[in-house]
Amino acid sequence: MTTASAPGKIILVGEHAVVYGRPAIAVPITKVKATVTVEEAARGAGCVIVASDLGRTIRVAEAAPDDPLAAIVRLTLAHFRVQDLDATITIKSTIPIASGMGSGAAVSTAIARALAAHLGFTLNNDVLSGLVFETEKLYHGTPSGVDNTVIAHARPVFFVRNRLIENFAVKSPLHLLIADTGISSPTKATVADVRKAWEADQEKYDAWFRQIGQIALMARAAIIAGEHSALGSLMDGNQWLLEQVGVSSPEIDCLVQAARRGGALGAKLSGAGRGGNIVTLTTEQTQDGIADILRDAGAKSVIAATIT
Ligand code: PMV
């Protein structure tokens, strides 16, 4: 039996604009993860995926071509030129679904890693990220690639579409809180709506995306310098721009405002928006108090994470 896992992720700055070629910063969240085990099955059994959290059992040979779980199995086997495999692939995940934490990409990453280990191959992170990107297209339509990149590499990344990843040093630990609005929001629909709005008024949207890109550049400099108040203000500025883009929601605004009133250095939605999670930057001292404030303000769950 082989087991592999992959973390969740959060986008610190740059979502949506990243789809249009602007930079984004994403960090892995190791407190939540997808774990996959692969066990040999009886000869002729084929590959069966058991995703009990989703209430699904999938026979890979019979699954639709656009089933992302079956697709990552097929892609990984094809990558290693393996034609037949009799195996049971069991998925367990603590990453909330459809809430901007990269659950789909993490499950695909863990499946590919566990299968590679089961077959006795090594899979480097760039190749792994590329395989997962193919399944991200099935989940999201036109993904930027930020989710598969940060999750496969499991390190903070400065990401620009179609460019090699850039890592950077985090000078002093970032204390984050990730608070769930409880509203599940599929990325595909929100990204498609933003595209329609962009097509209708490219000049206006491109200007917002350009500003978001500048925020990502300044945020990287602030993280490298350990300037957390500057980073917090940049996150607030990013939230304002995301509100203009039309991807915030009353529930997001409520949690963002609660975090700021509680003394957070900055707060914004994370991921596609219209629901899902917010991310807020605190200090070590204020982290617990602001977590309580977020719960009082209606957060369905609050995850504390320290990024080093
Ligand atoms: O909702 P998530 O975590 O999958 O993030 C989506 C981020 C977007 O920038 C909105 C889309 C993308 O592909 O980068």
CATH architecture of the largest domain: 2-Layer Sandwich
Fraction in helix: 40-55%
What's the number of helices?
Answer: 9
Q: Tell me about the largest β-sheet.
A: 6 strands, mixed
Count the beta strands: 10
Bound small molecules, deduplicated? (3R)-3-hydroxy-3-methyl-5-(phosphonooxy)pentanoic acid
User: Could you tell me the mean pLDDT?
Assistant: 96
Large-scale geometry: globular
Contiguous runs where pLDDT drops below 50 for at least 5 residues = none
CATH class call of the largest domain:
Alpha Beta
| N-end to C-end Cα span | 32 Å
CATH topology of the largest domain: Ribosomal Protein S5, domain 2
How much β-strand is present in the residues? 15-25%
Radius of gyration: 19 Å
What string, H for helix and E for strand, traces the elements in order? EEEEHEHHHEEHHHHEEHE
Number of domains: 2
SS-based class: alpha+beta
Structural summary, described in words:
The chain is of the alpha+beta class. It has 2 domains: 2-166, 2-Layer Sandwich (Ribosomal Protein S5, domain 2); 172-307, GHMP kinase, C-terminal domain (Alpha-Beta Plaits, 2-Layer Sandwich), CATH 3.30.70. Helices cover 43% and strands 23% of the residues. It is built from 9 helices and 10 strands. The chain has helices spanning 68-79, 103-119, 125-140, 146-153, 187-200, 202-225, 228-245, 250-261, 287-296; strands at 2-13, 24-40, 47-51, 56-59, 87-93, 157-159, 174-180, 266-270, 277-282, 302-307. Strand 3 and strand 4 (56-59) form a beta hairpin. The longest helix has 24 residues, at 202-225. The chain is globular and about 60 Å long.
